[in-house]
Structure prediction request, 370 residues.
Amino acid sequence: MTDKIEFIDLKAQYRALKHKVDARIATVLDHGRFIMGPEIAELEQRLAAYVGVEHCIGVASGTEALLIALMALDVGPGDEVITTPFTFAATAEVIALVGATSVFVDIDLADCNIDASLIERAITPATKAIIPVSLYGQCADMDAINAIAARHGVTVIEDAAQSFGATYKGHRSCGVSTIGCTSFFPSKPLGCYGDGGAIFTTDAALAQAMREIRVHGQSKRYQHDRVGVGGRLDTIQAAILLAKLETFEEEVAARVRIGDRYLAMFEGAPGIDVIQVGRDRSSVWGQFTILVEDRTKFVAHLTAAGIPTAIHYPIPLHRQPAYVELCRLAGSQDRAEWAAARAVSLPMHPFLSAELQDRIVEAALKAAQA
Prediction:
């Protein structure tokens, strides 16, 4: 076993699944249906059953999933979509792409997810949807968010790019709102070997609309009933995901175990704040992120110790040049800015050994006190 610490060890995962992955890919190469081959329908059925919803639509990426969801809801110019400023740009990007306005609501520092208690006051007659992001691997307060949406007649789209496999009050992430969207980017809890994503819903009409949108708005070949995109999931990526699904529950359990161990080892540590996991939910730790006071010095110490890090995310979206003029701020964003200045992600993957995790934590504790 190598002593090198990988931030995400995709090579170890491939070695463990090599024969299954290779066999699945070989099957696709043999039948030659590289676009919308039989693996797509098989994957969609398996994922829908896993999440506990009626419909799954495989798409080209997590970003495409969000975009197609908004298009199916006819969100466009003059509409507003409430979301968090502390997330990857794709969440606001798709809102801008359909011509709508992002309305940013500040986060809860306990979990860095959108603060549900601040959402209702941000709603206006122009509000069309709410996109809570299940940041770092756990859902936001979805019951409260769904209740607010129901009172105001708006739709909730969970951005579950980092939380596939997590649970909220016994329900799977992606199945806790009208629409759930996830990403299969290689580093995600369930990742393929390229771009990929999926949309989940129990609403048959929305599912049909989203299926048509992903194939250029076609209801049948060369009949375009709506404006769409080229948003299909490649068959080879579906095949890889099917192979990975065979051990996914084991990897989820490993992620939870490793995350719990991190939390226990950092408990009460001076200079380090950890993300809290709600008692009614689980986290799959799409990233294991801590908050430190002097991030530059902290990262430098870890780098010197051979510990890789990443920052998720250094600049909140309302401060990003592309979105400054395309958003509305619903009150202060002070907590998002505070977290953005302090967030550091540590190595997290299902193959992280206790010995390597001990080295990471030891270095982090020293760095926080340096």
Notes: The mean pLDDT is 97. The first strand starts at residue 55 and ends at 59. The chain has eleven helices and 15 strands. The radius of gyration is 20 Å.
